[in-house]
Write the structure tokens for this entry.
Amino acid sequence: MVKPARLLDQYFYLFMALLIAAVVAFGFSRTVEARLLHAVPARPFLLYVHGAVFSAWVAFLILQSLLVRTHHVRWHRVLGWFGVALGCAVVVLGVWTAIVMARFRVAHLHGLGAVSVLGLSFYDIAAFAVPFALAVAWRKRPEYHRRLIMLASCALTSAAFGRFPPSLMPRYWFFVGVDALVLLGVVRDLIVNRRVHRVYTVGLPAFIVCQMAVMYVLLTDAPFWRRIASVFLR
């Protein structure tokens, strides 16, 4: 009989990649028809490119996890450079799309949520970019690399959690969903390694502190952020 710890050690990151894909698919499936495919007014073309690239990242995450699980480490490393380019595209497109969509809200939706959406989008991209950059820098340290990639990928799920029905995810609780995914990594470490890796002991508290700061700034409509946002909205 295979012990649970061994199963977690072998399949956890593949499971997490599939779980992240499920969260993204479920969250966006509830709004893609009205807000993208048949949106009125029509959304900027960049939003479609953004969706394709972010979906490609999730698919790439699953592929890389499968390659490691099936012991095709050489292919995993070769394709990793494609992942570097894809991750950079996620960051650039994320910032660009956030600005374009915020301006779209001002021009076509009476500015509804433009400042808040811009702030949340900027934070999400930063929360992806920092662990992603560290994962690239520490690609030869597998224990750090795979946890950092997971942290980065979890950060991208907040928009999906934000689209969950209120019965599953109350309003403004989307960051709780993100942190719950990261906590699964903490639980895995405790079961398999009997200790929590430094990536989580530093990364998860950093996530929570930054999330609280972002939500405070947006919910209190902080004047300093309005001034910053106005620069991008012009």
